[in-house]
Amino acid sequence: MNWAWTSSLDQIWRSPTFPMWLTLAAAGFFGIVVLVTLLRAEKSVANGALTVITLLSIAVAVAATIRGFGPGGQAGPTESRVTQATGPTLPALSCIDDLAGDAVLNACEKAVFGSADAAAAAVSYAAAQISHLTSYGDLATAERSTTTELQALRRAVERDRYGLMAYALMARDHCSPTACPAFRSLGDNHQIISNMNDRVYENTVTRYAAAWNAPAGASPSVPQGLVAALPSSMPTGRPTNAEFPSAASTPPV
Predict the structure, then answer these.
(1) Is residue 250 part of a domain?
(2) Do 52 and 155 reside in the same domain of the chain?
(3) SS3 sequence of the chain
């Protein structure tokens, strides 16, 4: 099968302007048929032609309606991309987009891995970003109709600052540093390969997991240097050795 022709036909079928051009072409063709039929045919034949045209018009309308939906009644790739392109539900997930600058993104690590559910949400978001990128096809295909949003998405995936992309590819797509279908959608996969080999995500989770399992009521102890630096007029909290008068030495009232 010629996959190039298949891809081209699918792009035409999914084009937002396809229903309009299909309707115009069908209207023009059927208009000519109606005109010729009415001018040259008998009345019974003309009525039959009009019936056929009506049925075909209904078929065109149904095809244009069904065209907006993918298999199984789900939205097609265009609607799926719009859904996936919506903003993250957690503020920390914005760090994965790699747009805020190095100073902010380096500090974002604590928010991304601050809790177990935040880390799990980050992995799911990274997997969705990869799916969004690969839905455009390989790099050569995507570059034919590239946009600034697509370029920013590819940079965020390629940068893989926290190792999330590498882990998502290994856990979900069973990729390895030497074989991964998603690499065809990237211009530079060296950072992801490095993160796979170094297990960046797993090591980061190990560092933060101790804080996740800490008791909820535990409060950090005050450093001794901070207590020593308190002014003498402020209580330090240490027991005092001052002697207070006893009850026997207090005169009766």
Answers:
(1) no
(2) no
(3) CCHHHHHHHHHHHHCCCHHHHHHHHHHHHHHHHHHHHHHHCCHHHHHHHHHHHHHHHHHHHHHHHHCCECHHHCECHHHHHHHHCCCCCCHHHHHHHCCCCHHHHHHCHHHHCCCHHHHHHHHHHHHHHHHHHHCCCCHHHHHCCCCHHHHHHHHHHHHCCCCHHHHHHHHHHCCECCECHHHHHCCCCHHHHHHHHHCHHHHHHHHHHHHHCCCCCCCCCCCHHHHHCCCCCCCCCCCCCCCCCCCCCCCCC
Report the pLDDT value the prediction gives residue 229, as an integer from 0 to 100: 46
| pTM for this model (two decimals) | 0.53
Identify the band that residue 81 occupies on the pLDDT scale cut at 50, 70 and 90: very low
Domain interval for residue 161: 78-210
Average pLDDT over residues 162-181: 92
Q: For helices 18-40 and 43-66, what crossing angle results, to 10°? A: 180
Total of domains in the chain = 2
| Greatest Cα-to-Cα distance within the chain, rounded to the nearest angstrom | 134
Phi-psi region at 235: left, alpha or beta (left = phi > 0; alpha = psi -120 to 50): beta
Is the domain of 195 the same as that of 113? yes
- Distance between CA 164 and CA 195 in Å, rounded? 9
